[in-house]
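Input chain follows. Return structure tokens only.
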Amino acid sequence: MTTTTTLPHMPDTLSPPRRRTRLFAVAEVRWATAALLLFLVALPLHLAGAPTPLWATLYAAVYVTGGWDPAWAGLQALREKTLDVDLLMIVAALGAAAIGQVMDGALLIVIFATSGALEAVATARTQDSIRGLLDLTPATATVLDAEGGERTMPAKELRIGDVILVRPGELIAADGVVTGGASDVDQAGITGEPLPAYKSTGDEVFAGTLNTTGTLRVEVGRDPQDSVIARIVALVEQASQTKAPTQLFIEKVEQRYSIGMVTVTVAVFAVPLLFGADLTDALLRAMTFMIVASPCAIVLSTMPPLLSAIANAGRHGVLVKSAVVMEQLGHVDQVAFDKTGTLTEGSPAVSEVEAAAGPDLPTRAQVLAWAAAVEHLSEHPLARAIVDAAGSPAPAEDFSSVPGRGVEGVVEGVRTAVVSPSAVTAILPASLGMTVRRLEAAGRTVVIVLRDGAAVGAIGLTDRVRHDAPAAVQSLAELTAAPPVLLTGDNQAAATQLAAVVGIADVRAGLLPEDKVHAIAAAQVAGHRVLAVGDGVNDAPALATAHAGVAMGGGGSDLTLDAADAVVVRDNLAAIPAAVRLSRRARRVVLQNLVIAAVFIGGLVLWDLIGTLPLPLGVLGHEGSTVIVGLNSLRLLREREWSAPDPR
């Protein structure tokens, strides 16, 4: 007789539902898009020789739509008695327009407006995901009273000491301790463990984790605002607010350059007048100085190389969120890896099958086939791995499941069970006992196969290491000064075994999200610039805290993808060291461009101060330097730049 078992529906992931700000709901995006479209209309009309009023009006609209926001920001800074690059950029663009270089000024406006829009979108999306993370916990909970009666109440109103009932397939509403029942709980989103953990009386459980097979009674141990999930939210928000803002090179020197340029321009105009120079000559010399000293070439020395590198990385499956991030990637000197879903695939696979020793006992293939027949109706991740390894056996009859013990059914007329070793320690043959100890010492998860109550074999399962993980770890270790570190919520044995395979010596296991943050913060206090790589909700605070955070895009949670500075879309670990190398090449191109710009600006400025620089020649030199640095920046779009060796 076959028993039909109805199993609870298991969500594919524990990621919160998407509640994203629409792209064009961000004001900076609307203004930047308008400026870009107007520029794309004006440029061909200009080049085609259309009537001047037509394209000039369109360029003027570009200045207004793309320039008003940075101009306002610059004026606000001016009220605080500071000069910043926003105002300097507007002055440079207006100066270019004043001498007839309207197109160059409009291009500068578009570049800055687009950069600001990208930064605004990244900020909005991160805030969306922080809010959405709270959706990992259910809105309501079933509370038990002293007489055993049930009532439903909002989860946010739970208090310490309340006892809640969690049925199969439900999310746990609060952190607490199990006071009754037993079940397997999927807590990968909190601890990073790839497999559900067995929970029974006395065990701790976390809000937002998924109860799978059994019914649990949980005594609330923390207020909802103090749960692990709530602390993750707080950690990400804190990291986003307190992480020291890394600036592009030009922004680091903008204040001094701005003040210096304005001061010298005034001096170039006023000093000759004091010595009796003609007003027109003094004004022309000062205007020429302002043009040749304007930072257009310097600004374009920095942004286009980084944008070219971003475009190249994007073609190879790495989405870098801003020019600042692209610059940061090249500065990292230590890498911190998550384990599950990052260095591993995040799903178990059969690694070894052993049959009990002795005459007339089954083969390894038979042991696997019997186990798969019983596991065919189970929703447990281990069951899927065993069935995948065996093929597609016919399901067992009279199937039943006991949380924390295993599953059983009738296979080929014989009562067959797949159970945990702890449930049958007393009846294990010596050979299988040694196999279990060996596999568990290597970080494997082990199940025992029983036939009519006798142990006939053992199956070892492990989370599969990504095929490119060892090479990626080695490449990043060669690129950085400090050895890589593994930060994981998984157990020590599994972490140590994985670290040995991929080549990591520094292993820290059993970590909660705040522990990962503390580890990265400690490394940064020691002077390291840490690159954090992860994929789960529990990795989001670490990625937000690190100097640069990279998320695995294939299975990454929404919060992790938005908290990260870059996303590896195809889960290709080898792309991470390639992106670091590309960032360093971009930094070299930036330095080359700055040298070129400085030589041109310095030479033209000296000519104007010492001799008499004709205005047309000054304009030609200024625009020529801009063209040269632009062409040099475009080299980073070439395919060979992606796989080029580290320039250091």
